[in-house]
Write a structure and sequence with these properties.
- This protein is an alpha/beta fold.
- The chain is built from 13 helices and 16 strands.
- Strand 2 and strand 3 form a beta hairpin.
- The longest helix is centred in the N-terminal third of the chain and has 17 residues.
- The radius of gyration is 21 Å and the shape is globular.
- Bound molecules: pyridoxal-5'-phosphate (PLP).
- Pyridoxal-5'-phosphate binds next to helix 4.
Length: 399
Amino acid sequence: MIWRPYTQMKTAHTPYHVYAAKGVYLQLDDRLVIDSIASWWAMIHGYRHPELTEAIVSQAQRFSHVMLGDLTHDPVEALAERLARWTPGDLNYCFFSDSGSVAVEVALKMALQFYWNQGQSHRDHVLSLRHAYHGDTFRAMEVGDDPDYHFIVKRTGSQSTVTHISTEIKELEEAFDALHERLNCVIVEPLLQCAGGLRTYDVSFLRRARELCDRYGVLLVFDEVATGFGRVGERLASDLVTPDIVALGKALTGGYIGHAVTIANERVFSAFYDDNSEHALMHGPTFMGNPLACAVALRSLEIFEREDYLGKVRRIEAIAKRELACFKDPRIREIRILGDCICLETYDAQTLKGYQQYALEHGVFARPFLNYLYAMPPYIITEEELVKVIDVMKGWFNR
Ligand SMILES: *Cc1c(COP(=O)(O)O)cnc(C)c1O
């Protein structure tokens, strides 16, 4: 029995069986459908890309895995070097892990220990955003801001050292006034909060956060697990404002194998780099730096640059804006489009009930949640396919 994600097993419908997948298409039992959400936002190249498959196969023929404890290998060294160049500034120190949640845990552990190592253990507080989502592990859940995810933290009675604020600059400034001596970091999903409702906000908030962090010596952490690799129309949001630590996941491997990385700058790394063994970062996921994942991530980055993926994302954004420019419905509260993210927020979750089945009947796989109907298609989607995805979204309201 497969215990399914975010699912009440008793009332859930049977999942749709995938028999094959290629490009933007999933082959289900009786039909071919466009995957409009790229398998939880990861499959930016679409399915069965021959070069990505080849990268995995040829590495598997050498070896599929060795641990990083006292061992190293070409794919992980090449990827660390590549990521150091890919990320801005001196974000050069790559700590690999097997999922985005763990990459966020590592980032938070780094931020906390950064101060411990300097004898400042009173800096135990984290500033995070309302509607934040940073993963499903406990500490990541704690800095998240969705009541559904909070219950374990509440039950275990762990004392909260997290303050949530909105994306208003005024609230950010007030929080710094009140807390700056106790803060070790500010953590945000930059520009686009995904699982918290596909909410966009302005880069000026990030710039102000950078200034305040600099003034008070607080670390700025970007969770770019979802926003990285083109999603918001930039290679990374970190290209606009540079954090001290960035977490990457999801599309890191083009979505082909689960992997993630936490990248720290020189200042963070140097607080651990010491003769004192207790100042080492005590973390080590079993499958960190997996050679198959590193090999496919390297190839993914190569394709991303060679085939102008940023151009593709900006094209998706332009088409979506054009197709939705005149679209209105009294049940829709707001339409938000940023890069590869298209979101129709309705007033009422009831409005979207039955949408998944309707979309499937019209050749599109979608997975709206709460009152958010959205698409985050693979970047290789054609104009015709994208227009179809958007037409199905509009069609639901025009039935
Ligand atoms: C998906 C996501 C995570 C968690 O990544 P997993 O690989 O599912 O553990 C963390 N942060 C953000 C912003 C995400 O979108």
